[in-house]
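example protein:
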Amino acid sequence: MKIAVAHCPELEALAGHIRSFGQMLTRREGHLTQEWIAAVRADDLSGLHSFANGLERDLAAVVAGALHSLELRRRRRPRQPNQDDVE
């Protein structure tokens, strides 16, 4: 995979955008969504442009979700001392 990505600029750009989107969600940096969309549009990746357009349609919800999604997941239910790791 790394070899294929290294030899194809489009795949390399796509992988970078996907990685940065994941980091943005993980770090709860929803405020960076518009910057991410601008970076995506700077590359010729029509499939990702379509995804960015979808994000932009309800940007406020996307930003709020990116800021709070991990926090909500952590609050779902308290872990019991005898609970298995498998859900």
